[in-house]
Amino acid sequence: MTPDDVRRIALELPAATEKSHFGKPDFRVRDRVFATLPEDGNAVIKLTRDQQEMMCGAEPAIFRPVDGGWGKQGWTVAVLAAADETTLRSALVTAWRNTAPITLRKAFDLAGG
């Protein structure tokens, strides 16, 4: 997968927009960041700590916590070169769900579990 794939999938999500975070592309829902594209060719997504632990344990070649305090808050690197579309889409939808207001999630039937 590539940064362009992240952009395409992220912007398909309801009310998602692309802006910039410290000069790097980011993806937001209602002005809250759910994913970023740092310059290293990977993506960073917003997960809960439990989701992060599950994804990193299940797919360690794809997911790892961001270094430092941000990683302890659930921010997770997705190694795009190792990801397939299904896995990347699932991670981005999860990050979107974690960020979108409940009314928006329900309106688009993406409330999840």
Description:
The protein has 113 residues and is of the alpha+beta class. 40% of the residues lie in helices and 25% in strands. The chain has a single domain, classed as Aspartate Aminotransferase, domain 1 (Alpha-Beta Complex), CATH 3.90.1150.30. A six-stranded antiparallel β-sheet has the order 1-2-3-4-6-5. Strand 1 and strand 2 (24-29) form a beta hairpin. The longest helix is centred in the last third of the chain and has 15 residues, at 85-99. It is globular. The N and C termini lie far apart (27 Å).
- Count every beta strand, where a strand is a DSSP E run of 2 or more residues: 6
The share of residues in extended strands comes to 15-25%
CATH class: Alpha Beta
Structural class by SSE content: alpha+beta
Largest sheet: 6 strands, antiparallel
CATH architecture: Alpha-Beta Complex
Give unreliable regions as ranges.
none
Shape: globular
Helix content class: 25-40%
Radius of gyration: 13 Å
CATH T-level fold name: Aspartate Aminotransferase, domain 1
Q: First CA to last CA: what distance?
A: 27 Å
Query: H/E element string?
Result: HEEEEHEHEHH
Mean pLDDT across residues: 94
